[in-house]
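Example record for the data management plan.
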Amino acid sequence: MKNVFNKATKILVALVMVLSMCFTAGSTTVEAWDSNIPHEFTRVKSITYPEWWKRKCPQITKQWSTYMCKYNGQWSYCLEASKTTPASGNYTASVIENNVMVRKLLYYGFGGPNGSLFKGQALTDDGLGEAETGYLYTHVLLSIAYSGDMCGANLDDLERAGIGLKGAYEYVKSLPDPANGAGFSTGDTATLKATFDKANMIQTTNTVSFNASSNETVQLPLQSNVTIHIAGSSAQQTGGTATVWGGQSFYLTAPLENSPTDYTSGTLNSSAKGKFCALAISSTNSANQTHGSWVQESVDSLRYSVDWLDFGWIDLVKKSANEDITNNNGCYSLEGAVYGIYSDGVQVDTITTDKNGYAKSSILPVGNYTVKEITASTGYDLDENTYNVTIVKDQTVRANSNETPGNDPIDIEIVKNDAETLGMPQGDATLEGAEFTVKYYDGYYTKDNLPEKATRTWVIQTKKREIAGKTYYITNLNDFYKVSGDDFYLDENGAVTLPLGTISIEETKAPTGYLLKGNTLNVTDTATGTTSTVEDSNYVAQVTKEFKGAKLQFGNDANELVVAEKVKKQQIQIFKSGYRNGMSEVVKGLQGAEFTWKLKSEVDHVGWDNATTYDVITTGEDGWAITKDLPYGQYIVREKKTPKDFYTNPDFFVSVTKDTSEIKNDADKVKKVILNNRPVETQLKLVKQDEETGKTVSLNSASFKIVADEDILDGGNIVYKKGQYITQKVGGKKYDTFTTNSDNVVVVKTEYTNDDDEKGEVFLPLQFFAGKYHLEEVKVPTGFIGLGKTQSFEMSGLLDYTKDEDGDPIYTVTVRDEQPKAQIKLNKTVADLDTDVDLVDRSDLSKIQFVLKAKENIYSPVDGSLMFAKDDVITTENSGAIVNTGSEVGNGVYALSTDGHLDISNLPMGVGEAQYYLQEVKTLDGCVLDTTKYDAVFKQSDYTTKTYIKSFDVENLTTDFEFNKTDVTGDKEVEGAQLTITDEEGNVVDQWTSTDKVHSIEGLVVGKTYTLSETVTAKDYVKATDIKFTVKNSSELETVTMKDKQVSFTKTDVTGEKEVEGAEITVTDKETGKVVDKWTSGKDSHFINGLEEGKTYILSETVSPEEYVKSTDIEFTVSKEKVNEKVNMKDKQVKVSKLTVGGEEVTGALMQIVDEDGNVVDEWTSEGKVHYATGLVEGKKYTLHEDLAPTGLNLANDIEFDVTYEKENQKVTMVDTINEVSKVDEKGQLLKGAEMTVTSNKTKNIIDKWTSGQHIFDITKDMKADLQKDGKSEGMYVDDNDSTVTYSLTANKDRKDYTLMLAKDGEVTYTNVDINGDETSHMIQGLEAGEEYVLKETKTPNGYATFKTETFTAEEGKDTSLSMTDEDTKIEISKQDITTKKELEGAKLKVTDKDGKVIDEWTSGKEPHMIKNLTVNQTYTLTEVIAPKNYKVAESIQFTVKDTGVAQKVVMYDELLPIKVKTGDNTHYEYYMMIAGLAVVVFGMVYFRKKHAE
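Corresponding structural encoding:
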């Protein structure tokens, strides 16, 4: 029996579930519909259409009936009315794409997502409820819209029959088409890419459309400096969260500087729905109907991403590639150079340099660029180079341009010609050695306005050169020809050049044998062939800029200046006289003597016969003969014809040394030579002179012997034989050696000297006879060489002599001795260290200079005078020294040759000894100046060695530096820093990126101050302060250490112990406002990048992490102390608790925090735990607002609160109250089945309705075990609709029931249930605080009296608990004696309902019998089955139960039977026994049934 009841219960539950399915439509969202996957199709319920439809509409061919069906959980409708409904099963469905009406009817009709079309309509008279009616109407219209099949009828037919569906059809037609989903024109992700809008100097993205219904929106979170623009309108917003409506198009803009980073959003908040799909379901059986259902696809996760451009700048420093040329030269300017900046060959910007050569671009996108000069600045060549530059975000990247100044690598060639021959020199004159002074002026001038002082001056001299077999005398601007002057200007190739400006050229020293005055300068322009002439003056020309380089005005490719100069000339007049042998008289004026004139140098070279004859003259009657003008030189004159009876005059020498124009006295303009055919006797004077200076040697004596080279005659007698030493006897002593008088004369007895003679001279005491002799030098003065030297001379008739004071002739023989010379050689090398960078340019060692000085006093061996005092500078001019290798660049300062050699010869040896020293005064940049004095001591060791040599091999050491980039400990090398060394002018000397090793540099310039700068800071380090250092003159290794400190940032909670992740932090330079670093906080501290020592910064939290309050800015200054620093920013939290009055956290409340401007800054659905607010800012006011309370809880009032600046967490608590109603019986037990309503007294609308004790939740054994153990059970499961359900059961304090929280599909419901999952007290939904409501029982459970209506007010912040007790219906049945009205015992009574079912049976007793819980308004029958003994069985009584809990009395009276007389007849004894037995059986059955019922 019990099993039968259980089965019946289960069937009933199943029916309830089926019915609930029939009348409930839910909205299920899915991914994109797949027409290949079958889903479940079920027949839910059969319904019959109203009979009168067919009767009133004859077009309908049959009586309709159909099934209410479901497909994949949604209602499904017949689309072809005439066909058969498919059987239940699994079928595929395809999307109906092109039938808008089908889609609209499924959407707005019964069971659709909107479902409002037929609400409240029911064909109750036809047995159809609201659900069946809505399904029927929707089905009919869908069949018409899809197939037009209505079993023969159409809408007009139905309209005429009174079935008014046409209006509904037209109404639906006017409604919007359901959503076709939402997305962007670029897909689910709005893909935005920025481009550079140069016209507006901003970056702008492409335009993207939001494809959705016009009432749907999407929320776009914007970066703080990003602006959204709605296309076609002026609407725009910067930062925050922007709303875009369906159909709108938008684009983004952002600034160029501090451009935002690339951004990809998370899933965007959107009100848009997915695509609504109408489905056609086919069973593949053509006889079956096509069914129509729907699916709402889920909205794809919408996102947006934007690729921003990064920007920076290019700057350029134009420098002269040859500052030696351009510095302080007004012909050059760094200003005005125009450069083009190109990207992929397209010019994107133009920059122009200022006076310092600096130019900076406008802001440009990061990337690779090329920079090329378009227009050169004044004086410079156009730079043909292209510079590649890569722009880095928010940085200025430099392109340095070292530009070649315009200059003329000019070959100014000065050719020296004879004015008459137009070529070769005449006589002994030479065109070699002509000196020209070339002056350069750094400006444009003419001859009339030349400045007094030239910028640079050079003296150059002509030299003889053999070129292509021809002889030339030329000079040009070259060290080879340079005599003195400033350094030459050199071009980038080391060639001598002339900068733009003006030069003047003037001959300042004529060559030997030529006149300076009267020179003619012929300048030929080789481009035009035009020749201009300047006499006795300087030639002035400008070096101008034409095209690349520069050109001197008077030349194109080669500039040739031809200087024609007049040779010195003079006439020579000879007077010929003689005497006859043996005759005393002199015969004057010999006629007919012929003399031939030839150059001695030529005769010595080619012989007399081959030498050129310059003139032939013959004496006239007066004995005179005169030559033509003879050019400069020494001539041999030979008497070719001699007058009869006279001896031929020996050859003699005559020199032309002056030009006639140079002799002022007319009488002396013609040189006179007097000849006698017979030599006369004369005095002989020996003079000792210095070969080099021609000065007479007076300090020490020289001694000579004289030897006859032929027999010496006197009056025909031989006085000395050939080879015999000449002796003279004076005062009885014979002398064969003759010693010059001197300051330090020392003689022996055979030497003749005379103190009366001039120093350096000796007069032989006796007359000398004509003849040929030679001298032998037998003693050389100290400081000279030439011991054993011989010198021939001839005493002849050439009367080219001097006279003493008595007029006696004196023949002078001058003997010149050379001094030995000192020679210093120095070979210089430069050390080469193994360093990372070598700055030393070793290609030209001529920049190294030495000074030459006397170490001790040096005296002249000629006269003992002081030539050089100690430490005197030795110059070529004051010493006669010759620089063979290298050059003299100043007063005793000598530059090495390019390859590092210096060779100075012809240095005076002094009086047999000289001491010099060389000391370096200038070295190469980057070398250590060598202060060592290199002593060169020379001592004469003999009288034959001409040159004494002292050599030095010297190495120059370089400066040696190591640069360390370390942390503050000095132990760890910091990698990745870009370090730059600049000189005092700001030029970059070296630049490198630090590694784990030191950086070494060789060749920083001594004495210069450099700056070590950190141009790009290593990651995680602070930019260090610049370090200035001065290079010492030392080769010792010097170390410069730059230490980088670190500033670490920690983002913690208020305890300072827990790192807070996810905060977006920026650090801004307070002075410039430029962002130097930004990052998102993580688990570890962050080392701030981009900081500089000594600067002040603002640390800002631009975006606070979820669950934390945005902190206020922190200002901090980075100290210059080399100590790491820390900056801590604490984020507080604001905890929001959503509680019940009992203190339990609420799940499912939709909460908002709103700022003072009404913006929602945080929104969440409570989850039964504390919520940490997001988006709050310290110091601001907010409102906590409950937008939607969970079912069963009341909405709470708003709470205003302040977020304080104190670094303490705050808590805001909001309490949700409940209004609950308990439906119980008189015993306080849950009373199930009562139908209740709550109605607003204000609006008269029903606010809530429910049935008490309904089953809410299946509590499993495990749940019960949890409840018994912990008083709580939580978990989740998947229900039959594949929805995830989260539940929580919590024991209610001091009660025997539980609070059940159910969360499903975003909805949360609170309910009180018992251990079986049945609702105990009901939580009323939708009440507003302060409003009055009426609680009413609309249906009472059978057996109970209806509760009276109760009015109550919902109180704010307070729970309201109402208890509604339904009293039992009570029927008091009394069995009384009709006469005495007293209770009769022993009557067998029963109560039956209208169907005859026995409700109760009993035997009356002393007290009335009470029956409870009979159904109100039901009529029952009281029947007496057996009357008490001696009483007649009473007639049955019907009674109706009233709706009251008060006991209702029902009295049944029994009458006594008539009294019979007893006859004693017991014939029926057996009968009575049988009756009694039956009675016992019946009683037993009744008793058993009653017990069973209890």
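Summary line stored alongside the record: The CA atoms of residues 850 and 920 lie 4 Å apart.
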